[in-house]
Amino acid sequence: MTISDEIIIEKALLGEQQGFALLVEKYEQYVFTLALRIVKNREDAHEVAQDAFLKAFRYLNTFRGECKFSSWLYRIVYSTGLNHIRTKRPEILSINNEEKPVIIPNFHTEDAAFQMENEEQKKLIQAAIQELPPDYATIITLFYLFEQKISEICVTMEMNESNTKTKLSRARQRLREIIEKNYSELKK
Known about the structure:
Layout: H1 5-13, H2 17-39, H3 42-58, H4 69-87, H5 112-130, H6 134-145, H7 150-157, H8 161-182
Helix pairs in contact: 1-2, 2-3, 2-4, 2-6, 3-4, 4-7, 5-8, 6-8, 7-8
């Protein structure tokens, strides 16, 4: 049985040490993935993720439950990542870095050749997403990987619904352009 976020938060606010640890365990991969999309570097992503969890712990008592906890947490990650970018001096990032892309769950199929081709396509899509500006990479990740609704993305990125839909549309278009230009093997 899975314990709801609300119960875990309540326990954490009552001082139970394992309460917040359960939230960290539940969301650590999502938080890291989102941080990586924003800062484009594994070391910085670890730092942003850690800072975001510390902020979430510090301000947990301000969470009112008006949105999902994940949306509230992703908003903290998003703003922490953007602040990190602003305060860090610009670096030249290699496209050929050794970052391991987040594994999107496999489709259930018996065809091993299809599985291998599918995994290769996922890696190429992950590489294309890394080429997007941070806000586009974030919105694509929230919508497709984290399966957040537009209303949840509005909370996370502090935008209205119209702006969110527009930004998502532009991010899709930019991703399509990157794939068409640099990843011809995905068009097959």
